[in-house]
Amino acid sequence: MWNLFFSLVLSASYGSTLRYKSVERIKAVGKHSLIGASGEFSDFQEILRYLDELTLSDHMWDDGNSLGPKEVHSYLTRVMYNRRNKFDPLWNSLVLGGVKKGPKGEEKYLGMVNMIGTHFEENHIATGFGNHLAIPILRAEWCEDMTFEEAVKLVEKCLLVLLYRDRSSINKFQIAKITTEGATIYPPYSLKTHWGFAAFENPSKGAVGSW
Amino acid sequence: MSSIGTGYDLSVTTFSPDGRVFQVEYAGKAVDNSGTVVGIKCKDGIVLGVEKLVTSKMILKGSNRRVHSVHRNTGLAVAGLAADGRQIVARAKSEAANYEKVYGEPMPVKELADRVASYVHLCTLYWWLRPFGCGVILGGYDRDGPQLYMIEPSGLSYKYFGAALGKGRQAAKTEIEKLKLSELTCREGIVEVAKIIYGVHDEAKDKAFELELSWVCDESNRQHEKVPDDLVEQAKAAAQAALEEMDAD
After folding, report:
1. What is the pTM of this model?
2. pLDDT in tens, A68-120
3. CB count, 10 Å around CB of B195?
4. Measuring CA to CA, which residue among A42, A34, A47, A52 is closest to residue A12?
5. Shortest Cα distance from A36 to chain B (angstroms)?
């Protein structure tokens, strides 16, 4: 059973303030794909609107065919790159994944495209700080035939590192899965963190001028 | 039966002395000569059926779609000049997409019928545009339940329980009137529509035809879609059985 999945933090920022803490940044696109985004949330909403129009006209053809993840990724790449060329980018990093039956059987796809139009396909994708903190872990520990549970554990390991080290993350995550049966977006949950280190007690002990 | 509109029928911007616009009436003739299109409003949705006359053995089965989805919850069946019909469908799709973009909710069927009717009527107002040679049956399911509208080449649009266009419309309308539509479910409605279309098909004048059925109902999650193949086969079988019964008398 081929599947792919995404996880992200449920927050949207207002500048450097983490203002909205229940924002779902993953959506299903058509029957075969999932899209996740980081960056400017209003631009993501606009992208979702474009995708809505795209999937609606695809649906109305009613010809037994539907757009797969590769096609949607290609479309988004064109949109992002053309906006960048007009010096009016959509300020997002988009992750697109999905599964669709192709001529060689069920084909999995995972790719990303960012605000300057850089796009590629990989077995593991991350945006923002994830590129620096999570990708090394994924490169070391990802393998082709992981089960869903193993994959969740691996991703949670990465999310935990990000939670500890990225100042703009919160302890509220969401996982989404896409298989040939369709997309499932799981409800938000938190990870267990450990702050009971000796060095964290009396935090203002050695601080000059604190009261 | 045709009335000669000598002199008053050359332009769509000319009235005849008895208040008729002949060009629009002639456009209606194009609709009257096409394959039958039937639409009925059942208690849980709409069923649209088209008698697609097959003009050549070389045509691939399933081509020449006559029933189109205009939005997720609305469908349009076209009778008359197919190319004109394509234009109306394109316009309806664009109106529906635009409405949703601006108002954030799917376009109400009544509003869509209004816009389509206005567009069709528009083309009867200028001498440099000819009227559409097609009539359209629009069925959709929105917050106010299932609704069925019919728009004629003149731009006239009414809301119906059951409507028919094309060659066999008189016979079809008689059959529809016999049905108890408020008690029919769409599943039953499909069979009735198939029976009507098979019934009004003139074996002598036109040879082969393909039946195209679509619905939008509770069972299809209020989405407009082609009726699933197995149900279409059942409906066809029932319709053919009914025909044989009639022939046997």
Report:
1. 0.87
2. 999 999 999 999 999 999 999 999 999 999 999 888 888 899 999 999 999 99
3. 22
4. A42
5. 22
